[in-house]
Amino acid sequence: MQPISWTTLEFEKKDRHPDWIWTVGLVSVLASVVSFFYNNIFFGIFLIIAGAVTIIYALKHPKELSISITDKGVAINESLIEYKNITSFWLDETGKEAKLLLLVKNSFIPTLSIPLVGVSSSQVREALAPNAKEEELRESRSIALFDRLGF
């Protein structure tokens, strides 16, 4: 089998308007003030930290990932996901760009979503079909919700 390789970004970079950042900061501060008012100090501190981390990660630039489908498995940068750990795959072509969804055993993130950039769905399907089961998968609803909220 001829290896298939492409590069993609870790996540879709969204330009955040300063109003978005102020809104997230204001909501987290107001929620923490309400929490402090009800004597829930630890939750208030958690809300402030969560708001700060959300703003920091929203301003972060995505890393470039190198994806390869080989005889041994799917390689993402230096990490190899062997075929024995891939339960199933699905090519989601419903959005603006096609995505490869991988259901991986023994992983912190069980469903990986990898955008297909510069490679066709049929090429990826031909490379994965002999080694993994094709089964309809969907991204989590929470991902769609956070995408709609602008995260």
What does this protein look like?
There is one protein chain. By secondary structure, the chain is α+β, with helices and mostly antiparallel strands. The chain has two domains: 4-10 and 66-149, PH-domain like; 18-58. The protein is built from four helices and eight strands; from the N terminus they run E-H-H-E-E-E-E-E-E-H-E-H. The strands form two sheets. The protein has a four-stranded antiparallel β-sheet. Helix 1 packs antiparallel against helix 2. The radius of gyration is 19 Å and the shape is elongated. The model has no long low-confidence stretch (mean pLDDT 88).
Properties at a glance:
151 residues, alpha+beta, PH-domain like, 2 domains, 4-stranded antiparallel beta sheet, 4-stranded mixed beta sheet, 4 helices, 36% helix
Short synopsis of the structure:
The protein is an alpha+beta fold and 151 residues long. The chain is built from four helices and eight strands, in the order E-H-H-E-E-E-E-E-E-H-E-H.
